[in-house]
Amino acid sequence: MAVDYAVIIVYLAGMLAMGWWGMRRAKSKSEFLVAGRRLGPWMYSGTMAAIVLGGASTIGGVGLGYQYGLSGAWMVFTIGLGLLALSIFFSARIARLKVYTVSEMLDLRYGGRAGLISGVVMWAYTLMLAVTSTIAYATIFDVLFDLNRTVAIILGGAIVVAYSTLGGMWSITLTDMVQFVVKTIGVLLLLLPIAVIKAGGFSEMKAKLPTEYFDPLGIGGETIFTYVLIYTFGMLIGQDIWQRVFTARTDRTARWGGTVAGTYCLVYAIAGAVIGTAAKVMYPKLPSADAAFATIVKDELPVGVRGLVLAAALAAVMSTSSGALIACATVANNDIWSRLRGAVTRSGGEEHDEVKGNRAFILIMGVAVIAIAIALNNVVEALTVAYNLLVGGLLVPILGGLLWRRGTAAGALAAVSVGGLAVIGLMASYGILANEPVYYGLLASLAVYVIVSLATKPTDAAVLTAWRERLAGRGAEAEAPDSDPVTV
């Protein structure tokens, strides 16, 4: 394993080095939080693909393939569909708003009264997303170094917190590009063909497994529908995803770069399911489906290649973890803390001072995430709670604000409150992992949004005019670049 260890150590050292480089570049709030809004199409595509394809998409995607066969691709496939929908229909408008958070968008659309409550919901979602990503370090470092769970979480989490705190979005962008390349080589170009060959090829896989393993709908229609509700719609409204849209140099970059990233996700989804199906042939009686990825890597790959593929898994986890961490810190600082102390700064005069504040919040949130990850055991339940709150509470007011001009601030606040409370109450009744909470919570949010909006006074014409100006890219203050643009 010495060669494999060397590959991993070089990779981790590179992540820290890029954090240091990013610190030298991130001199303003815009540079620190959204990479100066200057990413070109290829860098944008790579970083967007990296953040949405995390440990759940890699280790979990292979596990679903092991359990259900090719239909196990649906979870990651719906993530790709959500990213495609966001990129094609909404990303250009989102990029032109020139905001930093989803709650700022809601304030602009509804007149400044929806941000705090939506910020709390979004903060809870990004916090749990960061926690679940951080927990995944335990699995990878256990395979690599046979480390204790707590030590593994602290080690992986500390590296992500370090480079994220140093350089903000610049560091995360650079590391995500490396992680994207490592994932592509490790999972798509190495693990996928090796797994299929070791399993005897597709003909041997079909001969040894039940026919339902090759049924594209084998996982079940209700499960697929739930994946669409949670992951496809979740991609449309998550702060971690929107914050990457804000990094695009132009709205065209956001649209086409995101489309490329979404298409890549579809390919990645199928690859994970095929790898899991191959693992089922080779190891038909694993104690856990989620152990399929680590088992096939550990037992079937040659020295050096094994280290690269494990680095790919580590890259997948780190990209999602760092993206969720900066999103959590951004929301905590800009949408909650600043509002509570009545000091929301909208001008560029204090940009340099705000870098220190945002850097401090990343560090604070990072320490909190590591502590919660150590204490928490059930990753699936935590992630389900996060996505149910996000979709049940925020989907309707966000999409309603973008698509329906009659929506009002009162309707948005009612939708967030009723949808969020309905989801929490129904999870207590049906169980955290049940499908009903997100179904009924979303319907309740939609009904309340429409009814209250129609029953209350329409949004002020001046607010709507300012909103349309921002959507057209004319109302936001220009952000003068203070460094050379990155157009890759």
UniProtKB/TrEMBL annotation:
Belongs to the sodium:solute symporter (SSF) (TC 2.A.21) family. The keyword Transmembrane helix applies. Keywords: Membrane, Transmembrane, Transmembrane helix, Transport. The chain crosses the membrane at residues 6-23, 44-66, 72-95, 116-140, 152-173, 180-197, 217-238, 259-279, 308-332, 360-379, 385-404, 411-432, 438-456. The keyword RNA-binding does not apply. It holds the Pfam family SSF. It is a multi-pass membrane protein. It comes from the Bacteria. Its main location: membrane. InterPro entries: Na/Glc_symporter_sf, Na/solute_symporter, Sodium:Solute_Symporter. This is Sodium:solute symporter. It is found in: Membrane.
